[in-house]
Amino acid sequence: MNEDIKIIFSKNLNRLMELKRETATEVSEKTGIAYSTVNDWKNGKKMARGGNLQKLSDHFGVNISDLTSENSAHQMIVNKPAFIELKGKVAAGLPLEMFDVPELVSVPYEVRERYPNSYLLELKGDSMNKLFMDGSYVLIDPCDNLENGEIGVVRVNHTEATLKRFYKLGDAIMLQPESTNPDHQNQTYDCSEGECESISILGKLVWAMTPIGMKF
Fold first, then answer.
1. Of 72, 118, 127, 136, catalytic
2. Any catalytic annotation for residue 204?
3. Residues 6, 164, 179, 204: which is the catalytic one?
4. Which CATH number applies to 82-209?
């Protein structure tokens, strides 16, 4: 087998594994191919053939040629469309109730693969305008915990949601804006007084984009 072909295949396989955040062990378990074989492919020692190529093709959702052609995996990923649901609007000012919006937004394929459970929200207001314009789309990866200083969507009063930088300070929770508008101040909730009971974390900000056609 030509050494160059094995290296090309290895690069394409590693690229696809990286995008799916899968290890050789996970690929082995999901395809039924021996771990040692997957590892040899990954390290450019061997080339997949016949039925195993088809298994990899089915697993990654690509054509066999995407695994065996030079630059194919990269080009395939660049050109492949991906969409994420725009679920509603979130306030960058005072908390605003979210609502469902039946719309799909095109995003880079790598983003969709990296955050498969994520959703988009349209940002409204100017309390985060040091970082994002009013009308920007923010990508939220669902979670129920944030580290101090991370930006996320926080539900307040059980029904409303706001995008802010999050801090847990002893017996208090602080939601910090990032704004040039002095009207926006830190929002602090005293947990010892029961003010945190109505607060829950919905997800972490992982990516953002400016919609096509937005005027600056």
1. 127
2. no
3. 164
4. 2.10.109.10
